UniProtKB/TrEMBL annotation:
Residues 1-83 form the Lactate/malate dehydrogenase C-terminal domain. It comes from the Eukaryota. It comes from Steinernema glaseri. It holds the Pfam family Ldh_1_C. This is Ldh_1_C domain-containing protein. GO terms for cellular component: mitochondrion. GO terms for molecular function: L-malate dehydrogenase (NAD+) activity. The lineage of its organism: Eukaryota, Metazoa, Ecdysozoa, Nematoda, Chromadorea. GO terms for biological process: tricarboxylic acid cycle. Keywords: NAD, Oxidoreductase. InterPro entries: Lactate/malate_DH_C, Lactate_DH/Glyco_Ohase_4_C.
Length: 86
């Protein structure tokens, strides 16, 4: 996780210097009904996160996997939000 965090920070600095790039991050999003946060590709640039790109089209198989993952995602998001609030 530390390596991923380091790479994201490097990409963010590059973006702030004007080098647009795409990185994935767990962000507030309405892309998935039932969860407030989801990991998705982001376009980074001089203004930080310039665009949330979304995850694109899913196959029926992928849609089913996502549907099955939502309860676990909801639990993890609630746990994270509670941690930050305390």
């Amino acid at each position: 996780m530390a390596l991923a965090g380091g790479r994201f920070v490097q990409a963010l600095f590059k973006g702030l210097k004007g080098e647009k790039n795409v990185q994935c991050a767990y962000v507030a999003s309405d892309a998935v009904p039932g969860v407030d946060y989801f990991s998705t590709p982001l376009e980074l640039g001089p203004n930080g996160v310039e665009k949330i790109l979304g995850y694109g089209e899913l196959s029926e198989y992928e849609k089913q996997l996502l549907k099955e993952a939502i309860p676990e995602l909801q639990k993890n998001i609630s746990k994270g939000v509670k941690f930050i609030q305390e």
